[in-house]
Amino acid sequence: MLENSRKPQWFRENIQRLAVGEAASEVLRTIRENRLATVCTSAACPNKGVCFAEGTATFMILGDVCTRACRFCNISTGKPEPTDYDEPRRLADAALALKLRFVVVTSVCRDDLPDEGASAFAMTIAALKERIPKVKVEVLTPDFSGRDDCLQTVLDAGPDVFNHNLETVRRLTPRLRAKARYDRSLGVLARARELAPEIPTKSGLMVGLGETRDELRETFAELAKAGVSRLTIGQYLQPSRLHHPVARYYEPGEFDELRLEAKAAGIGAVLAGPLVRSSYHAGAFT
Fold first, then answer.
1. Is 272 helix (H, G, I), strand (E, B) or coil?
2. How are strands ordered across the β-sheet holding 37-38?
3. φ, ψ at 237 (rounded to 5°)
4. Cα 142 to Cα 192: distance, rounded to the nearest angstrom
5. Using CA atoms, how far apart are residues 43 and 279, in angstroms rounded to an integer?
6. Cβ–Cβ < 8 Å for 206, 232
């Protein structure tokens, strides 16, 4: 995360208070022993100390190299390694060792694979459900280029929550999200709802990228129309000087306003705050 003198003092103090400790060390050790990746570390999440201290992590499957180069994301871009078919077993072993009851699984984009990684999600869900019978699994997927067959593969595996991040408003999407399309992402969320209406759909937005409040209100309405029932809203932080700059930092009270506006648009559960990320406190998100 890039040090930035423009960060408000309250924001810097909030980050400095993030927890670390013995539980965090145990999570890191288990992740290393099972040769796994987490989006917490790869994406430089500001909450990783808190989540690790609580004994949770968001596992990132299919490696830590992405085929896309989004201007907000800290994950490396390049040519990924071949699929590791033993990864689902190791991930399930790690989740069991950490006594997890709610597991979030995400991935890099894998446009290089025939199914763009959908089967890896399905195998991971299956491994977790077999190893930990009462576990709840949230998947945070790429857009799979809008392909129904990929989406169906993931949904057939029975995740408990389907998450796909819209990330930003329509106007800024072409500038920020490599190879992605705003309407395609909305379509993925709507189609997931149609194919598996029993599975809640969720999305996430960043603010501080240059969007307007009117654009955010329009986005809330479009997410609600797509059937999204859960939404996270957090402050964008610039990972490096090569990434998109922060346009401004929202005040804490503004996140309260955004939460109410999103709920008024028809989204049932909204978590909004400066350090909120798409999988932050996911297990308690209702």
1. strand
2. 37-38, 58-61, 102-107, 136-140, 161-163, 201-207, 230-235, 269-273
3. -125, 130
4. 13
5. 12
6. no
Q: Containing H/E element for 27? A: helix 22-33
For residue 228 the two structure tokens come to: 């999204």
Residues in the chain, how many? Answer: 286
Could you give the CA distance from residue 191 to residue 199 in angstroms, rounded to a whole number?
A: 12
Rg (C-alpha) for the chain, rounded Å, is: 18
Tokens standing for 200?
């809640």
Look up tokens 């990684």; give the residue.
117
- Domains of the chain (ranges; CATH) run 19-163 (3.40.50), 164-279 (3.30.750.200)
Residues 6+ apart with CB under 8 A from 150: 115, 116, 117, 118, 144
Q: Which residue has the tokens 């072409």?
A: 174
- Taking only the tens of pLDDT, the chain with its 286 residues reads 444 446 777 666 555 555 555 555 677 788 888 888 776 554 455 555 556 555 566 899 999 899 998 888 878 889 999 999 999 999 999 999 988 888 999 999 999 999 999 999 999 999 999 999 999 999 999 999 999 999 999 999 999 999 999 999 999 999 999 889 999 999 999 999 999 999 999 999 999 999 999 999 999 999 999 999 999 999 998 888 888 999 999 999 999 999 999 999 999 999 999 988 887 666 666 5
21 neighbors 50 (Cβ within 8 angstroms): no
Residue 3: is it exposed, middle or buried by C-beta count within 10 angstroms (0-12/13-18/19+)?
A: exposed
